[in-house]
Amino acid sequence: MIAKNIVKTVISLFIVSLIIGSILVIYFTRQKVEVERTPSPASFEVSNLAFNPSEVEVGEPVVISATVRNVGDLEGTYTAELKINGETLENKYVTVDGQGSQTISFTVVENIIETYTIEVDGLQRALSVLKPALKVGKTGYPYSTIQPALNTAQSGDRIKVMDSAVYEGSLEILRDTIILDFNGATILGAGSGTGIKINGENYATIKNGVIENFGFCMTLNNSNQNTIENMRWQNNTYGIYFSENSNHNTITNCMATNNKQVGIGLNSSSHNTISNNISEYNEVGIDVKNGSCFNVVDNNVASNQKFESGIQLAGAASNNQITNNTTNSNYWFGIIIDSNSDNNLIENNVTNLNEGSGIKILSGSDHNTIKNNTVLYNVVEQIGEDGTCEGNVFLNNTTAGPGQSAEENVVENDAGLGRDASSDFARPDELAPGNYTGYLDNFDIYDCYKIHLNSGQRITVEMTPPVGADFDLLLNDPNLGRLDASYNFDSAAESVSSTATSSGYCSFIVRWWQGVGTYSLSFYVS
Question: Which CATH superfamily is domain 44-130 in?
Answer without folding.
Answer: Immunoglobulins (2.60.40.10)
